[in-house]
Every structure is written in C-alpha cells, then in structure tokens.
C-alpha cells in the first residue's frame, strides 16, 4: 500500500469521527423511516404499498428513498419479479435481520416507557410554567 495509513487503520470505524462513513449508515438505520421500515420488515417480506400502509405517515417518495438507502447499505433486499405489472417485494438481508432485532428491542423499550415519559414531560412543563 502506498499511503502512510495502513489498510487496517482504514477499516476501523468510529461513529464519533466527523468523516467516518458509519455516520451515514447509522443515519439510514436510525432515521424515523429507516427504523420503522426495518422494524416492519422484521415481520416478513412486504410489497411496497403494503409496507407504506404499515409505516403509517411515510410518503411514497420518502419510503422509496429509505428503502433504496437501506438496500445500498445491505440491510434490505429488493426482488423484482418479471410480471405485468411488476411485482416488487422487500425483505431483510441477514444484516438487516440483526439490526432490526436491535431496533425492535429499542422500540419495545420506548413503548414500555411511554407512561413514564409522559409523566416526566408533565413535570418538566409544570416546572417551566412555575419559573415564568
């Protein structure tokens, strides 16, 4: 290798480093639509419109962009069957299954904490009103 940086050094990812490519990957996974798309696909393969209905509120454009990014990163598999009209189905790759399991754990944690968070928000808001 001709540069001063060894091959191993180039492969070390550090999400806290500004230029690290892992930040973009993390953004694709943890963005609102990425998280929800991956969690939905953990339930099994979906066609585009069925996935869009499952991920309530996502626009067609945002879902398409999200799926494309996740496919490029290797988390989602897109299979287009040669039929008329074309039948396209999305599913998780082995890496997608791993990351979706972690996201499902986080989602379940968040859902379980909703009452506690609601109370914390109410206390915070009440304290802010008293400070005025």
Number of strands: 3
Order of helices and strands: HHHEHHEEH
Strand content: 5-15%
Helix content: 55-70%
Strand order of the largest sheet: 1-3-2
Number of helices: 6
| Main structural class | mainly alpha
| CATH architecture title | Orthogonal Bundle
Summarize the main sheet: 3 strands, antiparallel
CATH topology: Arc Repressor Mutant, subunit A
Describe the protein.
With 132 residues, this protein is mainly alpha-helical. It has a single domain, classed as Orthogonal Bundle (Arc Repressor Mutant, subunit A), CATH 1.10.10.10. Helices cover 62% and strands 11% of the residues. It has helices at 7-11, 22-30, 32-41, 48-54, 60-72, 94-131, and strands spanning 46-47, 76-81, 87-92. Strands 1-3-2 form a three-stranded antiparallel beta sheet. Strand 2 and strand 3 form a beta hairpin. Helix 2 (22-30) packs across helix 3. The radius of gyration is 20 Å and the shape is globular.
Short overview:
By secondary structure, the chain is mainly alpha-helical. The protein has helices spanning 7-11, 22-30, 32-41, 48-54, 60-72, 94-131; strands at 46-47, 76-81, 87-92.
């Amino acid at each position: 290798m001709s540069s001063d940086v060894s091959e191993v050094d180039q492969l070390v990812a550090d999400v806290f480093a500004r230029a690290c490519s892992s930040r973009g990957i993390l953004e694709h996974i943890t963005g609102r639509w990425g998280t929800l798309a991956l969690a939905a696909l953990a339930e099994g393969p979906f066609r585009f419109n069925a996935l869009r209905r499952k991920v309530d509120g996502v626009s067609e454009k945002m879902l398409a962009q999200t799926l494309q990014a996740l496919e490029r990163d290797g988390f989602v598999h897109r299979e287009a069957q040669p039929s008329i009209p074309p039948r396209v189905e999305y599913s998780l790759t082995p890496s997608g299954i791993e990351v979706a399991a972690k996201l499902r754990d986080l989602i379940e944690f968040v859902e379980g904490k909703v009452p506690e968070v609601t109370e914390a928000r109410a206390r915070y808001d009440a304290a802010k009103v008293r400070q005025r």
